[in-house]
Amino acid sequence: MRCPFCGHADTQVVDTRSNPGANLIRRRRRCPGCDKRFTTYERVELRMPRLVKKDGSRTDFDREKLTASMKLALRKRPVATDAVEGAIDRIEEKLRAMGEREVPTSKVGDLVMRELARLDKIAYIRFASVYRSFETPDDFREAVQEVKAPRRRRR
Into how many domains does the chain fold? Predict the structure, then answer.
């Protein structure tokens, strides 16, 4: 590791601490050239698969775009931000777990639909109306039937 102060090519690690929850390693380093100390962080870098759109073009996975579309569906709905972040984390985890270099955007859409169904039924319907390009009231009716909880029988 090059010293950020003097540019010396080799530095010594003085202390190492890991943070398993954040997949992070913190290292305190000392430069033998100028004797200054500095901290570096090491983080695991996992690549997300590239997305293949319907028209065949390819694009990089964009967490911010996914977040924006989910937040749009969840706008003015009583869902905690932590729950949304957790859903997005699960989607990313499932995409990585596939082990594929490229994934169709339809697969990402299906994963989003699944997570929205768990978070909020109205948000699910909103997202589905755009994702599936609803054109008739019957399309909405079918989507409502998908998320409708079975009613309990009263005695």
Answer: 2
The three-state secondary structure class of 16 is strand
Q: Specify whether 88 is located in the same domain as 121.
A: yes
Q: Give the span between the Cα atoms of 151 and 10, in whole angstroms.
A: 68
Successive 10-residue mean pLDDT values, the chain, 155 residues = 93 90 86 95 83 94 93 92 91 90 93 91 86 79 75 49
* Beta-bridge partner residues of 50: 102
pTM above 0.85, yes or no: no
Asked if residues 11 and 57 have their Cβ atoms less than 8 Å apart, the reply is no
pLDDT of residue 128: 84
Residue 69 domain flag: yes
* 147, containing H or E segment: helix 137-147
Phi, psi of 50 (to 5 degrees): -80, 150
Instruction: Judge whether 28 and 13 are in contact, CB under 8 Å.
Output: yes
Supply the range of the domain harboring residue 70.
Answer: 50-147
pLDDT of residue 150: 55
Asked whether 7 and 16 are in contact (CB, 8 A), the reply is no
